[in-house]
Amino acid sequence: MSDEDKGGRTGDQAGGSARAGVEKLGFESRAIHAGYEPDPTTGAVIPPIYATSTYLQDGVGGLRGGYEYSRSGNPTRTALEECIAALEDGDHGFAFASGLAAEDTLLRSVCRPGDHVVIPNDAYGGTYRLFDRVETPWGLAHTPAPVSDPEAVAAAIRPGETRIVWVETPTNPLLNIADIPELARIAHDAGALLVVDNTFASPYLQQPLTLGADAVVHSTTKYCGGHSDVVGGALVVREGDLAEKIRYHQNAIGGVAGPFDSWLVLRGLRTLALRMERHCDNAEAVVAFLSEHPGVSEVVYPGLSSHPGHEVASRQMKRYGGIVSFRVAAGEQKALEVCGATKLWTLGESLGGVESLIEHPGRMTHASVAGTDLEVPSDLIRLSVGIETVDDLVADLDRALS
Ligand SMILES: *Cc1c(COP(=O)(O)O)cnc(C)c1O
Q1: Domains recognised in the chain with CATH numbers
Q2: 327 annotated active-site
Q3: Rounded to the nearest whole angstrom, what is the distance from the C-alpha of residue 99 to the centroid of ligand 1?
Q4: pLDDT tens-digit readout, 228-256
């Protein structure tokens, strides 16, 4: 069979092992051991970076471990794919060059021109652009709906046409929460799949497949990689037809993660649990500080009982994550000044790395939605709380606010 006719790697290693082999181990053990056994020839404890495009065949078609060509499969990428599948309690993981490459591959694996998708009305900007500028001209229609309102999501479904209900939870930057089991029921009743972009929570805080979702999307650029040194994406699904379609399209479209990038994301996953605990500890301390500060008019964090998604988040998330948004009482100008006045908090986009970031969504990540329904308050600041010494983080914010 030529590379053009099949999906990715063939052979036993190509599937089924992620949940079966390590399902009894805890999350931290899976993060460190799933997907890789010490190399049989050298004993190397850590997976090598297999910088190779092609593989020796033992006679025509005699593949070792199913490896034939590195777009179809590469052992470093396999180690990452099996590890992230184990962390999401899925059967099959697929690693991509970016979160958006993962999204596009999923959409074209499931949808055809003429189909319809429900998307979050506050989707990540790049996701919205993918739907609006790339998938729409290709023939895939979409309707935005608020993920925190199941009735509105149900009303946006077009019976017979909607293939996917796509949600993020928590969303960016207002941290709206989608009730995953409820939306899974709504999607499945309509014959659609529920896809959850789990980037903000990470698999440590939330495992959508266990709550009824059909596919999980990650920008591994964020918490999974965790060190702001790599761009990557992933999909995770359970056994079945969807896995086969994704495997085929991953290879046929070709937006795969390279071995170096796979290695960095895998290294990030090893410490995901520790990092997420510290991100959450620090975020809670920052929330406590901001909630008492007279210069702050509102703090947005799903861990606060005042947050409209608090109850749902408490049911489906282990803790509430490392992203905090807040509004500056004195208005936009002061918010911009605060963003420019911190020293330890780096002014920049992205999120989920060990270092703390501060940004003004209205002028930065969400500038493109100004003037639309999705416009965010102009006095809003978003924090990606890192894992530095929390007293230093609070002191720096205190200085910038005064
Ligand atoms: C960053 C991000 C993406 C896109 O991922 P890239 O790796 O930048 O392509 C998708 N969804 C969410 C929630 C993100 O934060």
Answers
A1: 27-269 (3.40.640.10), 272-401 (3.90.1150.10)
A2: no
A3: 5
A4: 999 999 999 999 999 999 999 999 999 99
